[in-house]
Amino acid sequence: MKAVAAFLDGIVLGLQYGLLGVGLTLIYGLAGVVNLAHGQVAIFGAIVVSLLMGAGWAAVPAAAAGILAAGILLLFLDLTLMRAVYRERGEHRILLGLLLMLGVGFVIDGFLVWRYPIESLSLRIGGDPVPILGVKMSTGSLLASGIAITTGLLLVVFFQRTTLGRGVRSVIQDEQGARLVGINPSSVRTFVFLLSGLLAGLVAGTRSMTSPQVSSLGIQLTTLALIVAVVGGLGSVSGAFLAGVLLGIVDRFASAYIGQFYTAVILLLCAAAMIVIRPSGLLGKSTR
Hints:
By secondary structure, the protein is mainly alpha-helical. About 75% of the residues lie in helices and about 5% in strands.
């Protein structure tokens, strides 16, 4: 029974990891930039939700406003700081993007910890636990999983069936070719930054249904997003989802049988092993 509980909890956690990794891998695939402020943006959205609920807002509109705030924050960064990054090419773009987003992450994290040191978001979902395979799952866990699965399916439909989604895929695959057929890579990048921010805010909201999201959690979420993206394959949306679920299961089994303290080390070892065995990730395209 302990193994079944760890497996089910791992799927719940892994779906959230998957959404977290998708937001990071989209920006890397499109802009060639590793967003090292991704987790901090998510926590920024969570704190906005918490503050609005404290001011008397209902949970749903407060959550929507927090998700939108996270999206607008990344949109603002794309329209300002990232313009200097886009003028660079190759390794210079990657290095400058890393340094800028690392700095942004520290600024956001430092501000939140300084201004709201005890603020946290915990969305309590009512309802009796639901038995699944003999394990009682909380309503919050099931709702969070449902939101993650629905979001994943909507992303698949968006990228496969809509003109804008196909445009995003075209720019990821061949920016010059996309420009030749009339697609504006700059506009697509701006949209993806907004989408990535919205996904980050959504992740913070769904995670708050199962555990409190405190103001100091940003760096940890960024690390998790990077591990998921590396294991799944930087630039691969489906790879990020698959890696997220697998790593979520590994996380819960490690926590149940080894100890919570060692889970981060084990996840990092998974990422290191993937880099050695298959540098392109589970579903990433090999550059060789």
